[in-house]
Amino acid sequence: MKFFIDTANIDEIRELAVTGLLDGVTTNPSLIAKTGRPLFEVLAEICGAIEGPVSAEVTATNDEAMIAEGRKLAAIAENIVVKVPLTWDGLKACRALRARGTLVNVTLCFAPAQAILAAKAGASFISPFIGRLDDISQDGMQLIRDIVQIYRQYPHTIETDVLVASVRHPLHVVEAAKLGADVTTLPPKVLRQMISHPLTDKGLAAFLDDWGKTGQTILKPKVAE
Ligand code: G3P
After folding, report:
1. Residue 74 maps to a domain
2. Does a structural domain hold residue 42?
3. For the segment 47-57, what is each residue's pLDDT rounded down to a tens digit?
4. Integer Rg of the chain from CA
5. Which residues partner with 158 through β-bridges?
6. Domain for residue 211, yes or no?
7. Residue 202 lies inside a defined structural domain of this protein
8. Whose CA is nearest to atom 8 of ligand 1?
9. Measuring from atom 7 of ligand 1, which residue has the nearest CA?
10. Is 192 in the pocket of ligand 1 (CB under 6 A)?
11. Which atom of ligand 1 lies closest to the CA of 127?
């Protein structure tokens, strides 16, 4: 499973990129707004910091304007993926941008039927929002299960990757991985939470304590007398 990071904060992206675990970045208008910085400046910095796909979302609502915005965003860097909403205009824009060779992420997916349409429109990625479904007491993970199952029926015609979005906690990542989702986009906080386990901390402390009592070091071992 690939890991994207769901933020437009360049400091956080750089800090987490050094782990070598990041395969890409997703942004949206809300995340860009949160930075308080100009869109093109932020996206250019992110594309320079990460080799993988960087999703940048259009804000127009009609297809022609979405295509124009998408072309402008795609010109920022080769790793830009244009993000369009799951509307009829968004799907038209998706098809047109894909025909030009631009990668497209179709976002705001909340139903399997929508995911089928996005695949038909040639989407490179479909972004089902699981946390927002959980928020309204619907099973977000069931949506991933359904989409993965549907897409698997057409391995030779559907080339759309399932990109699990609106992730709230590490269990979402685990469940999505068990279902074989292609990508999960993680808020930085969730990526950091994934490594935490009290028994890891406790076990490491005990190992180091016992080792310290021996007075030995690995790099400068004691020579036997
Ligand atoms: O980037 C899209 C998605 O991940 C948003 O998540 O937390 O705003 O529901 P959230």
Report:
1. yes
2. yes
3. 999 999 999 99
4. 21
5. none
6. no
7. no
8. 166
9. 166
10. no
11. 2
29 CB within 6 A, ligand 1? no
Q: pLDDT per residue over 165-185, tens digit each?
A: 999 999 999 999 999 999 999
* Residue 132 near ligand 1, beta carbon < 6 Å: yes
Atom of ligand 1 nearest to the CA of 132: 9
Q: 35: domain CATH number?
A: 3.20.20.70
Percent of the chain beyond pLDDT 70?
99
Cα 26 to middle of ligand 1, angstroms:
9
Determine how many CB atoms are found less than 10 A away from the CB of residue 173.
21
In the chain, the number of structural domains is 1
Q: Which residue has the tokens 């996005």?
A: 118
Q: Is the pLDDT of residue 158 over 80?
A: yes
- Residues 107-155 have pLDDT tens digits of 999 999 999 999 999 999 999 999 999 999 999 999 999 999 999 999 9
* Owner of token pair 């906080």: 189
Ligand 1 binding pocket includes 27 (Cβ within 6 Å): no
For residue 33, the enclosing domain spans 2-196
Long-range contacts of 111-115 (CB under 8 A, 24+ apart): 111/143, 112/143, 112/146, 112/147, 112/150, 114/86, 115/146, 115/147, 115/150, 115/151, 115/160, 115/162
Substitution candidate for ligand 1 out of 34, 106, 129, 169 with most atoms within 8 A of CB: 129
Q: Give the pTM.
A: 0.95
